[in-house]
Amino acid sequence: MSAPTALITGGTSGIGKATAELLHSRGYQVVVTGQNPDSIAAAEKSLPEGIVVLRADARSLADTDRVVEQIRERFGALDVLFLNAGIVRGGPIEAFDEATFDDMVDVNFKGQFFTLQKALPLLNDGGSIIFTIGIGVTRGIAGGSVTAATRGALLALVPSLAVELAPRRIRVNAVSPGPIETPIWAKHGLPPEALEETLEATAARVPLGRLGTGEEVAEVVTFLASDAAGYVTGENITVGGGAGLSV
């Protein structure tokens, strides 16, 4: 029997990369996608040998077609689809113009939806689909309305897809990271000192008193991918150290 195969979108850094490394260590064949040339180059150097790194822009359906075809040719089928790619843009609602709004919809919702649609014929019966959502969708973060809305659209898919794909024994779940220490924080454009202050203040508001790690989220994703979660479908698991539970 060949090893199970997993596709991770947005898998060249952060949570996606940590999940790729963990799944690989557990015997999976892993394919990751990313669109940033620097992240792709770094991933190719640092990921374990055997993990396939493919360039694909979540906005491009042609890129998605190419990824799916490469998986078909190389592995024949998929067992796990981790739809993790996404972008974050913070700010008050009046700060968003149409181009930024459309870009977030294209990456966070449209891109993941069509990746699922196009990869589904490759997914073996009994497989697992996992979406990355985010704690802001259900617990609220000031300035996070558009990110939450575009990620929340994915969460709205989960229960219906879980029912729709149940005859094939395909499980559909979501993971919602809270404050996790990943490279995404640096993309907010803050000076180093301000970024450090932001991270410290964020950690202080978490009941467990710290930021989480990509590896901790990866453990939950790997559980949802495994037979140990064989009776879990239609669920959203928060990995946030208790963030948002108290005021």
TrEMBL record:
Keywords assigned by UniProt, alphabetized: Oxidoreductase
Lineage top rank: taxon: Bacteria
CDD domains: SDR_c
PANTHER family (UniProt xref): DIHYDROANTICAPSIN 7-DEHYDROGENASE
Similarity comment: Belongs to the short-chain dehydrogenases/reductases (SDR) family.
Protein name listed in UniProt: SDR family oxidoreductase
Organism this protein belongs to: Actinoallomurus spadix
